[in-house]
Design goal:
Layout lengths: L2 H4 L21 E4 L5 H7 L5 E5 L9 H10 L4 E4 L13 H14 L3 E5 L2 E4 L2 E7 L5 H18 L4 E3 L14 H12 L2 E5 H11 L3 H7 L5 E6 L3 E4 L5 E4 L8 H14 L4 E3 L8 H26 L1
Parallel strand pairs: 1-2, 1-12, 2-3, 3-4, 4-7, 7-8, 8-9, 9-12
Antiparallel strand pairs: 5-6, 10-11
Helix pairs in contact: 2-3, 5-6, 7-8, 8-9, 9-10
Length: 305
């Protein structure tokens, strides 16, 4: 199936009327990769924004900052954190928050986001984004950590819904309800990762459309799209792995169209963190997302006419 065939419109309903709580343009963007620095500077591709992983830039100088400074002069910037460990049982790392604050002050991004996950415990850092039990105790801890983060960084953050492979039997809330309550209590926004919704839906045999519809969609400030790999679990059932190492699947494009029906035009990032292809390949996926954003914009105008 070609990118072009994935970009064709289907019958759609009118989008929810909403405004973006964050400052990214309602266009497609790309994750900024070192392999593409020089080509970006040579061609200045037509994109809405670039996004970086904060932890790659938590130093004072070096070539990464040289290129990012030049690119930031031409494009809006989103910064995406992967190491804050908002869901951890222990306290947040204040030194890490200080470094994040310095990075945000330096580049003044339109958006900053983090994950609903944990990656630290007992002074040990795990190179993964691990799931949480969805219960009142965890909810209070996560809200406290988000409040602390927003106060320290002096900005509203977006919280990303996770891709998960196991769930806790101790959970007393479903994930959409848990996220909705976090947003209500803290005032944070939501980064809707459509690929994560699909991956978790397949892994836990739940309907990803119903999951997305149950989220606080009025608070979505950005969408992520990415690819995944297939595997099978110990029982032989399908298991999707959120690798960010493949092209966006047709099922994820379909779910993206479903989300845009409800959201209207929304800033959308194409994520690719492994097996990085040439820049034109990613630009083709970005153009596909831009077409879907255009359909959503057209439908919104027709609905308001």
């Amino acid at each position: 199936m070609t990118i072009q065939s994935l970009c064709q419109p289907s019958a759609r309903g009118a989008p929810t009327q909403r405004t973006h709580p964050d400052g990214l343009p309602a266009r497609a963007g790309l994750g900024l990769k070192t392999q593409h620095f020089t080509e970006i500077l040579a061609t200045w591709p037509d994109l809405g924004f670039f996004e970086i992983h904060a932890e790659n830039y938590l130093v004072a100088g070096g070539p990464f900052h040289h290129y990012l400074s030049r690119i930031r002069d031409r494009y809006p910037l989103s910064i995406h954190g992967v190491g804050l460990s908002i869901g951890a049982e222990g306290p947040l790392d204040i030194a890490h928050l200080d470094r994040l604050a310095a990075l945000l002050d330096r580049y003044e991004p339109r958006s900053f986001s983090e994950h609903l996950a944990w990656s630290t415990h007992g002074g040990v850092f795990f190179n993964d984004l691990l799931p949480l039990p969805y219960d009142p105790t965890t909810l209070t801890r996560v809200c406290d950590h988000i409040d602390q983060t927003q106060e320290h960084l002096r900005r509203r953050i977006l919280l990303e819904n996770p891709a998960t492979y196991v769930e806790f039997a101790a959970s007393t809330l479903d994930e959409a309800t848990f996220i909705t309550e976090i947003v209500r209590r803290t005032g944070c926004g939501l980064l809707l990762d459509v690929n994560n919704a699909h991956v978790s839906g397949v892994n836990h045999r739940r309907n990803p459309q119903a999951y997305i519809a149950a989220l606080p969609l009025s608070e979505v400030g950005e969408i992520h799209l990415a690819g995944f790999d297939w595997d099978r679990d110990a029982a032989g059932a399908p298991l999707l792995i959120d690798t960010h190492g493949a092209a966006i699947a047709a099922a994820v494009w379909d779910l993206y169209a479903f989300a845009l029906e409800r959201l209207g035009p929304t800033p959308t990032l194409i994520e690719r963190d492994n097996d990085i292809p040439p820049l034109p390949v990613l630009l083709a996926e970005a153009r596909c997302a831009e077409r879907w954003i255009g359909y959503a914009r057209r439908d919104r105008l027709e609905a308001s006419a």
